[in-house]
Design a protein that fits this description.
By secondary structure, the protein is of the alpha/beta class. 41% of the residues lie in helices and 24% in strands. The protein has a single domain, classed as DsrEFH-like (Hypothetical Protein Ychn, Chain: A). The two termini are 18 Å apart. It comes from Peptoclostridium acidaminophilum DSM 3953.
Length: 110
């Protein structure tokens, strides 16, 4: 199954760092993650030089997984030009066709 995650809750950092990213790195997640959309303060997870950001960038390089930060969220936090390689900014009108092209079957909000 191909899934995408909308990263929006305060607990998303722990879920990604301690569960999802290690599972993806080990190839044992159980679903193919085709994309992640980061909103609010979670956009900071895509910042260059951060552990989570660099790990996500490596996964993007390996799998082609979409990494998208909410454009307004990134701009409000003044980080739009400091995201990891492979990450882009955009909003829902960009997210939907991008995930559709990637074959997402389920979108899960964390």
């Amino acid at each position: 199954m191909k899934v995408a995650y909308v990263i929006s809750s305060d607990n998303s950092r722990k879920i990604l760092r301690d569960m999802i990213i290690p599972q993806l790195e080990q190839g044992i997640h159980g679903a193919e993650v085709v994309g992640m959309f980061f909103v609010f303060d979670n956009t900071f997870m895509l910042l260059e030089g951060t552990e989570i950001g660099e790990r996500l960038s490596a996964l993007h390089e390996k799998t082609g997984m979409v990494l998208l930060a909410c454009d307004q969220c990134a701009i409000e936090r003044e980080i739009q030009d400091r995201l990891v390689s492979g990450a882009a900014i955009g909003c829902f009108p960009i997210l939907y066709p991008t995930l559709g092209s990637a074959g997402a079957e389920q979108i899960i909000t964390l």
